Structure prediction request, 97 residues.
Amino acid sequence: MQAKTLTCPVCKAHLNGTNRCSGCGADLSRVLVVAAQAALLREQAREALGRRRYGVASDLSARAQFLHHTPMGQKLLDMARILAATRVEPLADMPAT
Ligand SMILES: [Zn+2]
Prediction:
């Protein structure tokens, strides 16, 4: 999980992976569940990219960003959207010269 990139939605303290904020004491269990769901969606999006299912990868990474926006997640979404729009084939499939 990306606990070190998460901040408390109440006081903005960086989370240390526990269910309780060390700064304000807020219960963060739902925040951590949503972040884990976003991470799973990104993993599925990367797998979809590997299978060249660019539209699926774009949808999955967009859902992940909706749940938990991260800079790296945005890069994944941008790449999936570009590949879905242009249908670019991976370089590995290009004939060797
Ligand atoms: Zn807090």
